[in-house]
Amino acid sequence: xxxxxxxxxxxxxxxxxxxxxxxxxxxxxxxxxxxxxxxxxxxxxxxxxxxxxxxxxxxxxxxxxxxxxxxxxxxxxxxxxxxxxxxxxxxxxxxxxxxxxxxxxxxxxxxxxxxxx
Length: 117
Known about the structure:
Layout: E1 3-7, E2 10-13, E3 18-25, E4 33-39, E5 46-52, E6 58-60, E7 68-73, E8 78-83, E9 92-100, E10 103-107, E11 111-116
Parallel strand pairs: 2-11
Antiparallel strand pairs: 1-3, 3-8, 4-5, 4-9, 5-6, 7-8, 9-10, 9-11
């Protein structure tokens, strides 16, 4: 059974940092890209970042470039999202998901990030 679980969210002041973790299981981790998307109340889902475990390629949405860093530990089947310089507009529920053919095909419960101004 494919499972992805995100954790590490919380309440932080603007300018602060958090590290989200995504624990994956039930599939061959190194064969897939894993990504993060977020959804804030009343807003559409937004892709934030991904890492392709096959070749290490990464991508970031423009609004987080230079502030967020995605990384992957294949020994632990875990993907991390380091978020620095957090802004109130980063507040959302963050989900990690497996990517297959450029679409998110599995994701689990998200973790909430709240950035206070």
